């Protein structure tokens, strides 16, 4: 059992959700400290302001502090090999493949999907007008990415092979918010292999736990 693990952030944040999923996959005990950066009167702890002024997600393990969600997931998998042992690969070749997909997610999938998350999922709740030109532009970009995914997933069960890994996990938060809208859902359901893959990864008990956190603490 790991001691002294703390996650600071808003559970509805995609970065926080990514870290929580990893922790649940590793079956680790941790403390979730809610930080609502949308409230101006909310004061961030000093150690967070020094490293991450936006306070989207901060992970603390003893004296170790990490602020990037993907770096946090890598750290968790490296430091705590128990739990889901295949999450970050069991060999150098597997890990290299996972790393390639983590880079692809961060550089190609995340930018357009993050824009769609904001305009399709968050803007309506924040009473912010949706920018339909931005939505259309990023839909096109994400369609191109998902077309490549669909081809890969026609050969593999998951992105990096036949095991669920960080490569798949890292896509869950943004995908969750996109499919929550009818317009966004079609991007996934319109591609057979992507639809099968998303249904599979979003049905994992660990992700269901994260969704509960989002709903309870939203």
Automatic annotation (TrEMBL):
InterPro entries, per the entry: Glutathione-S-Trfase_C-like, Glutathione-S-Trfase_C_sf, Glutathione_S-Trfase, Glutathione_S-Trfase_N, GST_C, GST_Phi_C, Thioredoxin-like_sf
SUPFAM superfamilies, per this entry?
GST C-terminal domain-like (SSF47616), Thioredoxin-like (SSF52833)
Name a biological process GO annotation.
response to herbicide
Catalysed reaction, written as an equation: RX + glutathione = an S-substituted glutathione + a halide anion + H(+)
GST N-terminal domain: residues covered: 3-84
- Gene3D superfamilies with a match to the protein in the record: 1.20.1050.10, Glutaredoxin
Where does the GST C-terminal domain start and stop, copy by copy? 91-218
Keyword check for Disulfide bond, yes or no: no
| An example molecular function term from Gene Ontology annotations | glutathione transferase activity
| Top class in the EC scheme | transferase
Gene Ontology cellular-component annotations: cytoplasm
Q: What is its EC number?
A: 2.5.1.18
> Among its keywords, does the record have Lipoprotein?
no
Q: Which keywords describe this protein according to UniProt?
A: Transferase
Family as reported in the entry's similarity comment: Belongs to the GST superfamily. Phi family.
Describe the task this protein carries out.
Answer: Conjugation of reduced glutathione to a wide number of exogenous and endogenous hydrophobic electrophiles.
PANTHER family, per database record: GLUTATHIONE S-TRANSFERASE RHO, GLUTATHIONE TRANSFERASE
**What protein name is recorded for this chain?**
glutathione transferase
Question: Species name for this entry?
Answer: Oryza glaberrima
